[in-house]
């Protein structure tokens, strides 16, 4: 039987509508408009598209956003000075520096300079530490989006065996930590796999919830999942496709056609985790604005 489709685009739209309402309320009751600053260094075409999409998403729901473009040859000092300025700017509640940065700039130094209370990407070590110990803080947007997708779809996480394939700092490790926490929308038993894992299929077959964050096109096949599994595909991979106008198409880390014929529920690519990621950036920015009222 074909799996239920977990429609990330639809869930993202629902959350964005809720955020738009919250923003109206913040404006009416506190004269407060959440603000996001997006910093782009250089001319990376993919980064430019991401930044444009983030600004548009802000605009669509009523978040004030400003874009700061620095040239490719900008110094680390210049970038750090801009972040300091944004740290002190009261109309800015979230600061996002689009990665990757040019090689001559130290990414860790840059992230560490963003005030943790404006780190809406959730990459600052303070926010990562808070995630680890289950304290309130900003969660990285992609794993946060995965968690929201599961809870909005009514997938039980409490007690479930979650298998995460991938252990990166931006997806695999944080999602594993988030779902392990002793709190609602979590309480899972989590197994994390990676490229050195032995007999991967034997482990993925045990998953009630399988999260693929690998970066290998269509690596998860039907024989690697059980009939009862809920499969979340984080992967975004370009593969050649002469039939398409662009010459390529996007696929996930999961072989959708065959896995969707076997498992219980599955998120597609595109239209799954992608729209959720940007939505959680908006969510964190609104959250940061609300927290600024308490300071
Ligand atoms: P990384 O390359 O940083 O990490 C990939 C992980 O997968 C590593 O831990 C690696 O293991 C593991 N891995 C690679 N090959 C295998 C294999 N054959 N078997 C088991 N494990 C393997 O990628 P990211 O975490 O940054 O991203 C993962 C995917 O998610 C990518 O496709 C990326 O494009 C996508 N993505 C999507 C986002 C969205 O918004 N939808 C946002 C961020 C990422 P090891 O550690 O041993 O090398």
UniProtKB/TrEMBL annotation:
Entry's EC annotation: 1.5.1.5, 3.5.4.9
Domain Tetrahydrofolate dehydrogenase/cyclohydrolase catalytic residue range list: 6-121
Keyword GTP-binding: no
Domain Tetrahydrofolate dehydrogenase/cyclohydrolase NAD(P)-binding: 140-292
Catalytic activity: (6R)-5,10-methylene-5,6,7,8-tetrahydrofolate + NADP(+) = (6R)-5,10-methenyltetrahydrofolate + NADPH; (6R)-5,10-methenyltetrahydrofolate + H2O = (6R)-10-formyltetrahydrofolate + H(+)
GO molecular function terms noted in the UniProt entry: methenyltetrahydrofolate cyclohydrolase activity; methylenetetrahydrofolate dehydrogenase (NADP+) activity
Short name of any one Pfam family annotated for the protein: THF_DHG_CYH_C
This protein's GO CC annotations: cytosol
Example of a GO biological process term: purine nucleotide biosynthetic process
Coiled-coil spans in chain: none
InterPro entries reported in the protein's UniProt record: Aminoacid_DH-like_N_sf, NAD(P)-bd_dom_sf, THF_DH/CycHdrlase, THF_DH/CycHdrlase_cat_dom, THF_DH/CycHdrlase_CS, THF_DH/CycHdrlase_NAD-bd_dom
Pathway in which this enzyme or protein is active: One-carbon metabolism; tetrahydrofolate interconversion
Residues reported in the UniProt entry to bind NADP(+): 166-168, 236
Function: Catalyzes the oxidation of 5,10-methylenetetrahydrofolate to 5,10-methenyltetrahydrofolate and then the hydrolysis of 5,10-methenyltetrahydrofolate to 10-formyltetrahydrofolate.
Family under the similarity heading: Belongs to the tetrahydrofolate dehydrogenase/cyclohydrolase family.
NCBIfam families referenced in this protein's UniProt entry, alphabetically: PRK10792.1 (NF008058), PRK14186.1 (NF010783), PRK14188.1 (NF010785)
Complexes and interactors: Homodimer.
Protein name: Bifunctional protein FolD
Organism: Vecturithrix granuli
Gene: folD
């Amino acid at each position: 039987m074909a799996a239920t489709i977990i429609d990330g685009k639809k869930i993202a739209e629902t959350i964005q509508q809720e955020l738009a309402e919250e923003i109206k309320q913040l404006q009416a009751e506190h004269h407060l408009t959440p603000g996001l600053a997006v910093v782009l260094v250089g001319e990376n075409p993919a980064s430019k598209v991401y930044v444009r999409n983030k600004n548009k998403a802000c605009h669509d729901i009523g978040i004030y956003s400003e874009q700061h473009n620095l040239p490719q040859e900008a110094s680390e000092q210049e970038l750090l000075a801009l972040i300091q300025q944004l740290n002190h700017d009261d109309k800015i509640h979230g600061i996002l520096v689009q990665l990757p940065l040019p090689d001559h700039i130290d990414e860790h130094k840059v992230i560490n300079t963003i005030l943790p209370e404006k780190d809406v990407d959730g990459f600052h070590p303070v926010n990562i530490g808070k995630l680890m110990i289950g304290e309130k803080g900003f969660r990285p947007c992609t794993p946060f989006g995965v968690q929201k997708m599961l809870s909005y779809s009514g997938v039980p996480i409490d007690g479930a065996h979650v298998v995460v394939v991938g252990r990166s700092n931006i997806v695999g490790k944080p999602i594993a930590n988030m779902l392990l926490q002793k709190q609602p929308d979590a309480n899972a038993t989590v197994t994390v796999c990676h490229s050195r894992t032995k007999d991967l299929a034997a482990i993925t077959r045990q998953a009630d919830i399988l999260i693929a964050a690998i970066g290998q096109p269509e690596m998860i096949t039907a024989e690697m999942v059980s009939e009862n599994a809920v499969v979340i595909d984080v992967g975004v991979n370009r593969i050649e496709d002469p039939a398409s106008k662009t010459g390529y198409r996007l696929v996930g880390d999961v072989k959708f056609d065959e896995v969707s014929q076997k498992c219980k529920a599955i998120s597609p690519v595109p239209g799954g985790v992608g729209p959720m990621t940007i939505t959680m950036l908006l969510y964190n920015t609104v959250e940061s604005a609300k927290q600024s009222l308490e300071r």
